[in-house]
Design brief:
It is a single chain. This protein has 28 helices and no strands. The chain is 72% helix and 0% strand. It starts with a helix and ends with a helix. The radius of gyration is 29 Å and the shape is elongated. It is mainly alpha-helical.
């Protein structure tokens, strides 16, 4: 057995620190004597050394070694025969033992994503011919394309994942999030559903998350509840977490907290969604519970955004805004797509008087989750910006709460007729939405030319005008405060 084969066996056994030491020494020997190892052996040593660096999270160094390995592979492909080398007594062809070049490129892409160099990750994966892309390569590409805003390419890659692995549920969620119709997605899984017993729930699951991604919270809740009540899927933590998030979006904080509590009782190591849960507890003044939750999450993992956000919520509602700012920033470092982290940091910045910086974070949160807007500082402009963002969000999804909030904003800028239209649309989506009904009734009452309103007009004309401004300011504050659960911290 050659020394390179020993390195390969240690790598396969997961002895990464041992591989790193030995391969590093062997590569130095090779540098001092180029004839010591064959091109294929140099390639293997570089890959195994890079893998050990990857395991140690030295991603930039790993990329350097992977790049050298690929260069060595090119030289190897030009060599028609393997040259003899010291200690090489293996009879099997070296090519059968060589690490996959495609796998090397995938590892490089992983390094680039960890270094937040998404463009480089896309470039290296794009260089792999489509027919040679494995499901995990297509999945990574799909996620990277989606993050970069290349939706068509993302859809294509997600579909390729499903073609190869029709039960890849996260790929299904990816397609639904990109506005691919639920029926089209379901058609890609129909064969496997029909051929495997006890998978009849999958079509309902797809339907439920199609509602989630079109913003139809009521039907999404009802559909997931029907799934969760089935004996085989009862007490599923993922479904309970989805229900908790949907209730939160719908403004039903009581049921949201209840579902989060059920989920964490079933899985005491649950992290996903706990940032929202901690925020809801903090809003209710249950700061001791928030503190305990944060400690528990840190004991599970400090490499996720959620424990930092929960501790940040505790600091924020304890009015320790500088600490909340630090914790929010740390959470964003771990997950730049964490909406709760962005809202936490934005709220802390706002309360520290750094309004313009706060707005940047709120706008990024709005981009990631259009239905959870935050109020903008300033007067008229905050409504103009809010209206523009809401119109953009509603172009992609129709949601009762979004239409109602748009109605509120339009009232604030005196666009009464369109505001009435928005309230009507909201009620058509959810006839039980009391706040939309109240908004409509208030407008109808204000439009009625009664004697009382005429007297108020005369009083207003005789007054100084300042009182009217103050009343308008109170009205604005009430409208924005009414949307607090959608905007995050206040």
């Amino acid at each position: 057995m050659s020394v390179v084969e020993h390195v390969r066996e240690m790598a396969a056994a997961g002895l990464h620190s041992n591989v790193r030491l030995l391969s590093g020494l062997l590569l130095t020997m090779s540098g001092n004597n180029p004839e010591l190892f064959s091109p294929s052996q140099k390639y293997q040593l570089l890959v195994y050394h890079a893998d050990s660096l990857f395991h140690d999270k030295e991603y930039r160094n790993a990329v350097s070694k992977y790049t050298m390995a690929l260069q060595q592979k090119k030289a190897l492909s030009k060599t028609s025969k393997v040259r003899p080398s010291t200690g090489n007594t293996a009879s099997a062809p070296q090519s059968q033992c060589l690490p996959s070049e495609i796998e090397v490129k995938y590892k490089m892409a992983e390094c680039y994503t960890m270094l937040k160099q998404d463009k480089d990750a896309i470039a290296i994966l794009d260089g792999i011919p489509s027919r040679q892309r494995t499901p995990k390569i297509n999945m990574m590409l799909a996620n990277l394309y989606k993050k970069a805003g290349q939706e068509r390419s993302s859809v294509t890659s997600y579909k390729e994942v499903l073609r190869q692995c029709p039960l890849a549920l996260d790929a299904i969620l990816g397609l639904l999030s990109l506005s691919v119709k639920g029926a089209e997605v379901a058609s890609m899984t129909i064969n496997v559903i029909q051929s495997i017993p006890n998978l009849d729930w999958l079509s309902v699951w797809i339907k439920a998350y199609a509602f989630v991604h079109t913003g139809d919270n009521t039907r999404a809740i009802n559909t997931i509840c029907s799934l969760e009540k089935k004996s085989l899927l009862r007490d599923n933590v993922d479904l309970l977490g989805s229900l908790a998030d949907l209730y939160f979006r719908a403004g039903d904080n009581k049921n949201s907290i209840l579902k989060f509590e059920q989920a964490q009782m079933l899985d005491p190591y649950l992290i996903k969604g706990m940032d929202v849960y901690g925020y809801l507890l903090a809003r209710e003044g249950r700061l001791e519970d928030v503190e305990n939750l944060g400690c528990r999450l840190f004991n599970i993992s400090d490499q996720h955004a959620e424990p930092w956000v929960v501790s940040g919520c505790h600091s924020f509602y304890s009015k320790r805004y500088s600490r909340a700012l630090y914790l929010g920033a740390k959470a964003i470092q771990l997950n730049s797509n964490s909406v709760q982290a962005l809202l936490l940091k934005g709220a802390a910045l706002r309360n520290m008087g750094r309004v313009q910086e706060a707005i940047i974070h709120f706008r990024e949160a709005i981009r990631l989750a259009p239905c959870r807007l935050d109020c903008y500082e300033g007067e008229e402009q905050k409504y103009e910006d809010g209206i523009a963002l809401l119109r953009n969000a509603l172009a992609n999804q129709s949601d009762c709460v979004l239409h109602r909030i748009l109605g509120d904003f339009l009232v604030a800028v005196n666009e009464y007729q369109e505001a009435m239209d928005q309230y009507s649309i909201a009620l058509s989506l959810d006839p039980n939405d009391q706040k939309s009904l109240e908004g409509m009734q208030k407008m109808e009452k204000e439009e009625s030319p009664t004697d009382a309103t005429q007297e108020e007009d005369v009083d207003d004309m005789e007054g100084s005008g300042e009182e009217g401004d103050l009343e308008g300011s109170d009205s604005e504050a009430a409208q924005w405060a009414d949307q607090e659960q959608w905007f995050g911290m206040q």
